[in-house]
Amino acid sequence: AIARSPSAADLLLYQPHAGRPADRAAIADWVSRVGLDADPDQIVITDGAQHAIAVAVSALLRPGDALACESLCYPGFKQLASLLDLRLVPVAIDRDGVVPEAFDTACRTAGLRVLYTVPTLQNPTGSVMPEARRAEIARIAQQHDAVIIEDDVSGFLLDSPPAPIARFAPDHSVYIGAASKSLAPGLRVGWTVSNARTSRRIAAARRATTYVATPTAAEVVRRWIESGDADRLVLEKRQAAERRRAIADRILGRWGWEAHPRAFHLWLRLPDGWKAEEFAAVARRRGALVTPG
Question: How many other CB atoms are found less than 10 A from the CB of residue 9?
């Protein structure tokens, strides 16, 4: 359908660095479903969530800078921080995510001005931060003039997710979403939502990396959102997550583990005497792939 459309040739041309207006409008509609009101001008389209994180961090920090992250952190973010020569400062978490007092202390004592967090279905613990704590984390960020990079790539799995942190601190946040988990992994389309000043800086960072987001991929995402196919795919992903959780429960439940019923991953506690790296190595030799914490 895209190849036959009158605009097909236009997709092979250079596009605005932040993305085409129609694509940004569709994504603004998409993020409104999780409770985030965004103007299309606040959105920068990227080549996936990992790229969105990279350009957001590059826009806000310089090599050698420190930034806060959860003490148990998404592995891909640690790899990115190493690549960009950034110093990670772990902030304590509990069953509800980032501990507000720990974040406040990090801002006051370490002078941190950026926090990266996954508040919904956190990777790797699977926790979901309650809305009241999100508001508190936002208040602390505003108090210290800090910016929260909020990675929400898995929030679509919840029927009624808590409001994003960005809703409570729109001028102190960069909200990140993507189509890779919600629609298809090979569909490398992500986005950031931030205030006008930060969006311009992120757009400049995306220009310096991949110049523009792949127009044909963004066109697929726009069409799926507008046609309702995206909603159907999200529903199928939720159902698949529940089926896989049931399988995991049958196989691993007796050893005790933690995860939200819709999470794509779970946190398994090892018996005394095991170290995570050693366990992963033994499991690999037995034919099971396990990611150590």
Answer: 8
